[in-house]
Amino acid sequence: MVKFLIPLVLFIIMAIFLAMGLHLNPSEIPSPLLNKQAPAFTAPKLLAPTETLSPTDLKGKVWLFNVWASWCVSCRAEHSVLNHLAQQPNIMLVGLNYKDNPDDARGWLTALGNPYAVSITDQEGRVGLDWGVYGVPETFVIDKKGVIRHKHTGPVTVQDVEHVLQPLVAQLQAEAE
Amino acid sequence: MKGLIFLVLLWSHAAYAIDAKQFTDQKQQAAYESLTSELRCLVCQNQTIADSNAELAADLRRQVYEMLQQGQTPEEIIAFMTARYGDFVLYKPPFKIKTSVLWLGPLVFLSIGLLMVFWLIRTMAQKKVDAVQEQGQQEKLAKIRRLLNEEEERF
Question: Which of A125, A130, A134 comes nearest B42 by C-beta?
């Protein structure tokens, strides 16, 4: 009896692990930047290239940092969700226009609407590298102290907004500076 | 035909993503080559940044190159990359509690396999010994019966 039970048990264990593997997302890599100070940068603004923006300018605010590009197909899918998100109170969206042609990027915002309070340009992907960006779109949530509290890889969905981003932003707004 | 396909396959493996880079000396070039073949491209996860043609891989190669030019050591460059992308960026992750299953898993499975082989061999050997002993016993019994029968016949 035991002779037949051992392979059965082994098979069940293997099946459980394989089933778990099926539901893991290999492109979701945990960011080591979580709960660390947001990496510094000084980058030109997309719509006002003579002005620059740094994370220190946003100290005391809760903001979302969304990495996007006009060449990115899933960003197009995400864009309407961001437009909707930007309408909500207490939401401040900052865009990182990643490895993009600024003219194309400006055209994209004109055509599809601009959910960003401000977007910065990163044509060479250097800011992206410091933030550990590897797949666009990505969205970070930064608290009042300038600490990264959440990272979302891939397009943000309405469910993500309602169940993750909005509650988190509300919670961070309530925290002290 | 098979040989030709094989050659094509070989060639395609050798076709690395090449960008023209000037190195100050051979040591720096060697460091660049070893670093880029130890770092994982995060977009195409089964390729090193030396192999990959993805844009991110090109950016990471440029970063490695620039840091080497600035005189930074390979250790500093590895630390820079892991600070941004985590241990996943390394093809050879460091030994930590988090990565212990990765490192020890194969050893555990190997020892389970060896134990099973050992156990199988022992039970098989034991069975053989038992069988031989059994046979000896049977022969003895047969002999006793024969002798008894002979005795009975005599009287």
Answer: A134
Task: Confirm whether B74 is domain-assigned.
Answer: yes
- CA dist B153 to B139, B143, B144, B147, B150, Å? 21, 15, 14, 10, 5
CB contact under 8 A, B86 and A26: no
Per the domain annotation, does B52 fall within a domain? yes
- Residue A121's domain comprises 34-174
Whichever domain contains B75, its CATH number is 1.10.8.640
Contact B45 A130 (CB under 8 A): no
- Residue A174, φ and ψ in degrees, nearest 5: -75, -20
Residue A108 contacts B where some CB pair is shorter than 8 Å: no
Residue A2 has pLDDT above 80, yes or no: no
> How confident is the model at residue A22, as a pLDDT?
87
**Structural domain that includes position B137:** 95-155
Q: Does the beta carbon of A17 lie under 8 angstroms from any beta carbon of chain B?
A: no
**Whole-prediction pTM value?**
0.76
The CATH number covering residue A157 comes to 3.40.30.10
* Domain-embedded: residue A125: yes
Region of residue B129 (left: phi > 0; alpha: psi -120 to 50; beta: else) = alpha
Distance, in Å, from the CA atom of A55 to the CA atom of A131, rounded to the nearest integer, reads 12
Establish if B43 touches chain A: CB-CB under 8 angstroms. Answer: yes
Instruction: Render pLDDT for B126-154 as a digit per residue (tens, 0 to 9).
Output: 998 888 888 889 999 999 999 998 888 77
Residues B99 and B122 in one domain: yes
- In this structure, what token pair is assigned to residue B5? 């396909």
Q: Is B78 on the interface with A (CB under 8 A)?
A: no
A54 three-class SS: coil
Q: What is the pLDDT of residues A16-30, one digit of tens each?
A: 999 998 888 777 777
Residue A128: which of B29, B42, B88, B44 has the closest Cα?
B42
